[in-house]
Structure formats: structure tokens, C-alpha cells
Amino acid sequence: DQRRTSFKEVRKRSALAPVLGIDEGLSRRDCDFLVDLLPGLPGKERPNLCAPALLSLPQKRRPSFETSGEKSLRVLISFGAEDPSALTVDTALTLQSAVQAEFFSLTVILGPLRQNNRQDRPFLEKAGFTVIEGSAFEANAGKSGGKSGGKNSAFSLGEIFADYDLLITHFGLGAFEALAARLPVLLVNPSPYHQQLSRYAGLPTMKGTGKRALPGLAPALCEKKSAASWKKITRQSEEAAIRWGLAERTDTDLSSLLLTALPQVYRNCPLCGKPHNLVKSPGFSRNIRFPGRTYRSCSCGTVYMNRLDPPPVEYNQDYFFAAYQKQYGKTYLEDFPHLQKAGERRLIHI
Asked: Phi and psi dihedrals of 23, rounded to 5?
């Protein structure tokens, strides 16, 4: 899990054990298996599994994606730990100038790695914003500390999402944590690349990138047509949550996936013995990936399968007799003529 692992290191690790890359960028095709926790663009080598639901997600959830029904809609603004494009303050001021205070309450997260927190916090507080300043994020938990007007105290950023009606952020971990908490999101992205990722993931996204997108916030949320806009944002957020497996709680996370994996990997072609990392078959993708298995091709024409987990069926004596009879109503030997005819039809078709 290094984002950009060199081919040299992947080769070194693969000599010791099967290699599973998590959100890998540089050496995607060289890993035996790939898991993307956040969706990437479809053009690069697709992973065995793309599953934001494997993340450590908030336990506290809203009843639904619909607004709370309160008179004042609670909007949270957060652009991550660093906010490299400096969108936090400008987004907050853009909304403040366009909204009526009795209809909106605005809370601003200042990430712990931002450069200007010392200057921005008093400025935002003086302007009437509720400010939450992160002093330290714990790995993979999105935790920070501190709240306007008091001493810093640890809190989980994801666990406060259920207290709001909308999160304004960019493409990243926070957006998917919010979907898991059933909090609608609206994305203001810093770059065209993030914009592409957001569109592919189906997330509600402002037109334009960076500060050029901010003038559209007021029409989207605060004018006469805002009710329709909110409904569209809510619908798209819920659809994205369903698409990426975040709509319902799941017991499976990344650690349980790794703890239960028993990978079976061929380092060389089982037929001719050539190493897979030296083979590129003309006109055929080197890897074809599905959940739990990766197919590799060899220049000799062999296509062979590597498994992340053991086969779901163990072909022992019980399978061919008691288990087979329980499932199909007859033993394997009794069913053999039917199986033979099915095999002949497949061979003719092939």
C-alpha cells in the first residue's frame, strides 16, 4: 500500500510471496492481485476488486439521504487534511455571501496539514462560521482534534457526518465516508483529473474545477430552484452509495479480507515454465482480473489462473457422492451420462 511501488520492489517481493497491491498506481499490472479502495478511471488496468466498502467507515449513520427536515440546513465544508488548492475559505465565503442565515448553518473543517490555519481560523470565526480544526489525523481513521471555542479533543471526522445535511468536498476518502453515513455530497474538485474520477464514480459534482467552480454553488443551493437541486444531489448521492456497496452495512473490511486470503499463485507458466513477468503475448492482455482471481497469458498460448482464495468446492469423495446427491438429487455417477452430453455440446460450440 504505497501508491506508487516500483517494478523492482514488486519483483523483489514476488520472489517471496504473492503480491497484492492496494490502490497501486505505478506497478498495477505487475501485482498478482489488485484492490482499489477508491474507484479509478476505467482506462488503466482494472483491479480484481474495487470496494470502498472495505474502508474503515463511520458507524454513525443518518436514517436516510433525505434532509433532516429542520428549518436550517446544516452544511459541512471539508477539503481534506491538506487542501492543496486552498478551496476551504473561498468556498465558505462564497456560500456565506449567497445564503440566508436562517436557512443554512455552515461548519468549516480546517485540515491539520493546511498552511494557513493560524490565520484562517480567527478570520472564519469572526465571520460567523463554526470551525473545527484538525490537529492530527490518525492513520486510516480520519481522526482529528479540536473545536471552535475549546481545547483540542480527539474526535472522528467520519462520525460527525451524520449530524449534517450536506458535505461539500473534493473527490477522496471523505466523500465515500459521507456516503456510508448517508450524507449527501457535492464535489468541488481541484483538478480535471479529480473531476474525471468524480464523474466516473457518479458523484454529484460542480461544473469546472478549482475556484472557477465556486460561482455555481449559489445557484445550485440557494436560489429558487434550490429544492430541485437538493433533490438531485440527494438522489445522485444515494445512487452512488448503492453502486459502490455503501448503502447497507457490511461486516467485511480490508483487514478481514487479508486475514482470510490464502492466495495460490503460479510464478511460471504451468505448461512451458516461462516466468510470467517476462511474457507478453501479442494481441492478448497479460492479465485479466475478476474478484478473487487473476488470469495470466503466456506466449506459448496457455492461459492460467491465480486465486486469492482457495476454490470454494473441494473435490473429495464426499463431493461426488453425498454432497452431489444432496444438491442435484442423484450421485455424480448416476448423473454422468447427462454431464457427458453437456460436455459434447460445449466442445461442438467451441
From this structure: 50, 35
Phi and psi at residue 188, to the nearest 5°: -120, 105
Contact 319, 313 (CB under 8 A): yes
- CA distances 147 to 16, 121, 133, 141, Å, are 47, 11, 6, 18
pLDDT in tens, 53-66: 999 899 999 999 98
Please check the confidence at residue 141 and state whether its pLDDT lies above 60.
no
Contact in structure between 261 and 8 (CB atoms under 8 Å)? no
Cα separations (Å) of 233 from 56, 168, 204, 220? 24, 11, 6, 9
Evaluate if residue 151 carries a pLDDT over 50. Answer: no
Residue 99: DSSP 8-state: S
Average pLDDT, the chain: 85
| CA neighbor of 132 nearest in space, from 161, 104, 103 | 161
In this structure, the chain runs to a length of 350
Dist. CA 247–CA 242, nearest whole Å: 5
Return d(Cα 72, Cα 34) in angstroms, integer.
44
